[in-house]
Amino acid sequence: MHLSARSAPIADRELRRLFDYFISRIGERDERRIRDDLEAYLETGLAPAAVAQVMAWFDSYMTLERSAAALAAAGGDPRAAVVRMRALRRERMGEAIAQAWWGDEDRYLDYTLARQDLIDDRSLDTAQRQRKLAELEQTLDPARLALIQQDDQAELSLRQSEDYARRNVPATQRFAERERQYGSQAARRLAELDAQRNRWDGRLRDYARQRQMILGDTSLSSAQREQRLQSLLNRGFDANERRRVDALARNDLLPRFN
């Protein structure tokens, strides 16, 4: 947490993160003990007056968390719940702390709701909707906008890759289309991901084929069969991959062969 030049605690976003860290232990410890843990932690580096101030903020924050849970459980109009929650934050924490702790989240939520309204607005044609969406994006913080654009591009490229695989599009055509859309560097990265995915799929098919043969070998005892299956898994995959393959096998999601 941060302190002022006079060693007074500052109620910034970092302090809220500290509160969230302690609150995350609810379930293993009750709220009373969590509060005591936080107070003991603060007492190692703060004066009594500063500890008292931080604990007062913490108590108000916990009250707000309970209010948020109650609003969520009550259901109803989610937008009305948002308005009510924001009013509670200002009422209990003051405008400055509410802005420091939730301002960025609120701005992003407002953006998300406004964006959904534009997408749902059937009175707009495609060009109008795209123009208004672009204008809306300009209201975001540049760092936040960059993250959203990265996420959008990642989702688009994933869907595109799935479509390429489904249609068995040749690698040269994939690269050319991606290069036009994302640039050469991104196209090369996506081509390497395709290659990695193909190598994984090939290894998985080989494993599934040999596994199926072992399972179908009636000359093996149960112990022999289990030993060979484990040996096959250990030989073909590292520890992290084995967990993934085991999960696929348990959920009957391995490739099948007639």
Brief overview:
Helices cover 79% and strands 0% of the residues. With 258 residues, it is mainly alpha-helical.
Please outline the helices and strands:
Layout: H1 13-23, H2 31-43, H3 48-74, H4 78-93, H5 95-120, H6 126-137, H7 142-167, H8 171-182, H9 184-216, H10 222-236, H11 239-250
Structure description:
It is extended, with a radius of gyration of 27 Å. It is built from eleven helices and no strands. It has helices spanning 13-23, 31-43, 48-74, 78-93, 95-120, 126-137, 142-167, 171-182, 184-216, 222-236, 239-250. With 258 residues, it is mostly helical. The longest helix has 33 residues, at 184-216. The protein folds into two domains: 13-96, no CATH class; 141-250, no CATH class.
Count of DSSP helices? 11
Taking all Cα atoms into account, the compactness measure Rg is 27 Å
Distance between the termini: 62 Å
Categorize the overall geometry. Answer: extended
Major beta-sheet overview: none
Unreliable spans are none
As a percent range, the share of strand residues is under 5%
Q: Give the number of DSSP strands.
A: 0
Number of domains: 2
Order of helices and strands: HHHHHHHHHHH
- Structural class comes to mainly alpha
Helix content: over 70%
Average pLDDT score: 87
